[in-house]
């Protein structure tokens, strides 16, 4: 196992990350100076694009692993997963920070991003989403804080956080459940626009279940990759345990999707050759059918490479789902105005920059914080 001192920062891969981040930063300044119209292909018919679909909806879904693993440790006392709780919480914290950055860049007047915290609009689902982001990001910061306090040699602060960690995790789990579902609730306001392949009154619940899928896959993927990069040994039973839980969640999600398809637009709607039908099938094949197919063999589930492939497929499938709901499911209705949308290179550059930033922060945390050490605080 590599010690923190053995982790090298300026490796060739890190230099690539820095280059991508610098490009994203340059484009960010251009977007802030010149506006959305000059830096994106968004328009009045397509106000939501790549940043909302991937960076916000996808990023928040990836962060679901934080509340899942924290709940498993501190609420249900599944001690087997304690070695991965800190990376899971950090990944969730980073996910929410990057989602906030993406929201800051996506709104027309970013200097007003703080308004929901002060000007309450309790009847607005968008306000509910904003408040959840504020509260859960704060909660994740508190859950993350013991790593920072340990690094600063502040045992008193560490002890204080551990004394309140159970109610904090419980509050965070409730917030995350509400937030993941409220993101789906946002799209209940467009029943006449969103394709029936995705629109139904239970969309908030589908968002929650798919976020659990993605969160588990993200934790497993991050644990798998970090164990290889930092030579950090991980008990194989952690991977098989996460894979087993994921299997049941994916089966449940598949049953839900089939039920809503059959009782909604009908099976034929998914095979009529339209753009929406093709995107729906792609989402289901990549994120549900293929992973389940790979999970059929028990030996494969015990194979780190096989589990890695499954995690990548699930993450890609849920990202496709968020893009479908945010863009492709609305495309026909929005395009009726004569407008179209495809992300500009600047939109891709900022998204790539945010992803590079997330990886860089994780590596810096592994280098300078006790990230890969189990949280030894008592949850009892």
Can you give a write-up of this model?
The chain has helices at 12-34, 36-39, 50-62, 64-74, 85-106, 115-118, 125-151, 155-185, 203-229, 236-263, 275-295, 298-301, 304-335, 345-368. It is mainly α. The two termini are 30 Å apart. It folds into 2 domains: 1-41 and 344-370; 42-336, Up-down Bundle (Formate dehydrogenase/DMSO reductase fold), CATH 1.20.1630.10.
- Beta content comes to under 5%
Largest pleated sheet: none
**How many independent structural domains?**
2
Looking at CATH, which topology of the largest domain would you report? Formate dehydrogenase/DMSO reductase fold
Q: Determine the number of helices (DSSP H or I, runs of at least 4 residues).
A: 14
The CATH top-level class label of the largest domain = Mainly Alpha
Order of helices and strands: HHHHHHHHHHHHHH
Based on helices, strands and strand pairing, what is the structural class?
mainly alpha
Number of E-type strands: 0
- CA-to-CA gap between the ends? 30 Å
Instruction: Give me the Rg, rounded.
Output: 21 Å
Shape-level CATH architecture of the largest domain: Up-down Bundle
Mean pLDDT across every amino acid position: 90
Q: State the fourth-level CATH superfamily of the largest domain.
A: Formate dehydrogenase/DMSO reductase domain
Low-pLDDT segments, ≥5 res: none
**What is the overall silhouette?**
globular
Share of helical residues: over 70%
Topology of this structure?
Layout: H1 12-34, H2 36-39, H3 50-62, H4 64-74, H5 85-106, H6 115-118, H7 125-151, H8 155-185, H9 203-229, H10 236-263, H11 275-295, H12 298-301, H13 304-335, H14 345-368
């Amino acid at each position: 196992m590599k010690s923190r001192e053995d982790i090298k920062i300026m490796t060739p891969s890190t230099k690539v990350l820095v280059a991508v981040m610098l490009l994203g930063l340059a484009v960010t300044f251009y977007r802030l100076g010149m506006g959305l119209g000059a830096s994106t292909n968004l328009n009045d018919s397509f106000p939501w694009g790549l940043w909302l679909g991937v960076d916000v909806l996808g990023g928040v879904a990836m962060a679901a692993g934080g509340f899942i693993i924290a709940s498993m440790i501190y609420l249900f006392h599944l001690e087997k997963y304690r070695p991965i709780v800190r990376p899971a919480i950090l990944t969730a914290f980073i996910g929410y920070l990057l989602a906030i950055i993406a929201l800051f860049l996506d709104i027309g007047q970013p200097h007003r991003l703080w308004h929901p915290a002060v000007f309450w609009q309790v009847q607005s689902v968008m306000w509910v989403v904003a408040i959840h982001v504020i509260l859960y990001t704060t909660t994740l910061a508190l859950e993350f804080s013991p790593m920072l306090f340990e690094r600063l040699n502040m045992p008193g602060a560490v002890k204080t956080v551990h004394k309140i960690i159970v109610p904090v995790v419980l509050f965070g789990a409730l917030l995350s459940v509400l937030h993941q579902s409220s993101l789906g609730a946002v799209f209940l306001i467009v029943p006449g626009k969103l394709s029936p392949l995705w629109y139904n009154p239970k969309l908030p619940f589908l968002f929650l279940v798919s976020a659990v899928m993605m969160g588990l896959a993200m934790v497993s993927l991050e644990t798998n990759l970090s164990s290889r990069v930092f030579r950090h040994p991980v008990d194989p039973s952690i991977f098989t345990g996460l894979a087993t839980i994921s299997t049941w969640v994916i089966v449940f999600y598949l049953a839900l999707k089939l039920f809503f398809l059959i009782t909604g637009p009908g099976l034929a709607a998914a095979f009529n050759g339209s753009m929406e039908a093709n995107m729906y099938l792609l989402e289901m094949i990549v994120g549900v059918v293929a992973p389940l197919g790979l999970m059929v063999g028990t030996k494969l589930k015990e194979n780190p490479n096989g589990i890695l492939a499954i995690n990548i497929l699930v993450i890609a499938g849920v990202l496709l789902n968020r893009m479908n709901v945010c863009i492709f499911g609305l495309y026909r209705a929005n395009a009726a105005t004569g407008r179209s949308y495809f992300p500009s290179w600047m939109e891709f550059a900022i998204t790539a920059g945010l992803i590079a930033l997330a990886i860089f922060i994780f590596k810096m945390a592994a280098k300078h914080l006790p990230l890969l050490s189990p949280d030894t605080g008592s949850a009892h």
